[in-house]
Amino acid sequence: MAGVAGVAGLSWSSNLSLLPLSKPSRSARRVPSVVVRNAISVETKSYTLQKSEEIFNAAKELMPGGVNSPVRAFKSVGGVPIVFDSVKGCRMWDVDGNEYIDYVGSWGPAIIGHADDKVNAALIETLKKGTSFGAPCVLENELANMVISAVPSIEMVRFVNSGTEACMGALRLARAFTGRQKIIKFEGCYHGHADSFLVKAGSGVATLGLPDSPGVPKGATYETLTSPYNDIETIKNLFNTHKGEIAAVILEPVVGNAGFIAPKLEFLNALREITKKEGALLIFDEVMTGFRLAYGGAQEYFGITPDLTTLGKIIGGGLPVGAYGGRRDIMEMVAPAGPMYQAGTLSGNPLAMTAGIHTLRRLMEPRCYEYLDKVTGDLVHGILDAGKRAGHEMSGGYIRGMFGFFFTARPVHNFEDAKKSDTAKFARFYRGMLEEGVYFAPSAFEAGFTSLAHSSKDIEQTVEAAEKVLQQI
Ligand SMILES: Cc1ncc(COP(=O)(O)O)c(C=O)c1O
């Protein structure tokens, strides 16, 4: 997308020409097709989500909205949320027996493929010794060493159980270290569901945060300032207006929670410079980008070292995990080394550490990130070319194993730009792709993920499906 312009080494951008929309939405079910095998006519199974629907309907009586995390409910794309039964490599199978090529990867962790044999074998060995000690274990040292060696900014690390916890911890630490209260976050960036981060983003000139959800006290977001992404002028104004009050600037160094939005390199550089000058900390939320854009994360990829970094997803290899880390002098404020309190019953538990260690070991093998770059590039180019042939306005981009596309030809630099894309068309595309056996994230505002388990054949199959669906929507 045009948002990547000017960033050295970024892969690609495309804005496709404007043509009128074609056909309206397609039917909800794939029509049964007939294949001829060895002269015997065999009717293939039609695409049905009957069991998914039954299970989801039951779930709605048991759990709010039938899910344990909102986007899973398919609210923005419509249709029945798919209930899955099993995963392996880049494939997923639902309870109705439908198979999908997966580009969600459990929202990021599955970078080496789902249910990797080595990770599973290691988990079984660890399991035999117990699932949780609530006390130190040597596996924590091993994963901590791997994270510290990999991520440029991290000299010490604290493991927690989710990305939300990691961001909460990093924020408390930034406030404790600087003795200041205010933080700046960017519109469209998600840092978990802790109160301080649930702020409705204002447009134009930054505003004081207002809670984005009932139940979040005004007091919790009063100190949260917001700015459009890629907009350094607003940041300068905020630092001028709130001299000596801002503890930290936190951002997704590549946005994945407003669709895929790349940073301008000069924006990242300016953030590093201004935070240093103003005595504020720079926090890279690498829950999504950590070990995905490069082994050392976005900070290695862009060559910018923040003060604190949050991690999650990949470092737990599919088990619940998070981490925050950074400069030793800052991290030594964390209890019990220092006075900033933060704790966790299951933090550093042996199963999560094991899955993380073996996932990172696989990522240390040569050429992993080149491979991700190649498959993701083929995928995004393929889809955008197919969109162009079908006459759709589209733009898209990718870096290594992270990608996204929008149904708009306009450059997307921030959340406001992203919101101008055609989300109704995305929903039609989404449901069409499901019927073709391709599982993207069920929202126009979520990045997609590839893995080492995606083969060229999987990409070809996906692009062929996209070609077909894009001609129909
Ligand atoms: C950038 C970022 N930060 C924080 C989080 C929160 O992580 P978790 O869902 O593990 O709490 C997410 C989740 O998607 C994320 O993408």
TrEMBL record:
What reactions does this protein catalyze? (S)-4-amino-5-oxopentanoate = 5-aminolevulinate
Gene Ontology biological-process annotations: chlorophyll biosynthetic process; protoporphyrinogen IX biosynthetic process
Q: Which PROSITE patterns match?
A: AA_TRANSFER_CLASS_3 (PS00600)
Q: In which pathway does it act?
A: Porphyrin-containing compound metabolism; chlorophyll biosynthesis; Porphyrin-containing compound metabolism; protoporphyrin-IX biosynthesis; 5-aminolevulinate from L-glutamyl-tRNA(Glu): step 2/2
- UniProt keywords, alphabetically: Isomerase, Porphyrin biosynthesis, Pyridoxal phosphate
Q: Name one GO cellular component term.
A: chloroplast
Q: What is its EC number?
A: 5.4.3.8
GO molecular function: any one?
pyridoxal phosphate binding
Its family?
Answer: Belongs to the class-III pyridoxal-phosphate-dependent aminotransferase family. HemL subfamily.
Classification via NCBIfam families: hemL (TIGR00713), PRK00062.1 (NF000818)
State the protein's name: Glutamate-1-semialdehyde 2,1-aminomutase, chloroplastic
Q: Which organism is it from?
A: Elaeis guineensis var. tenera (Oil palm)
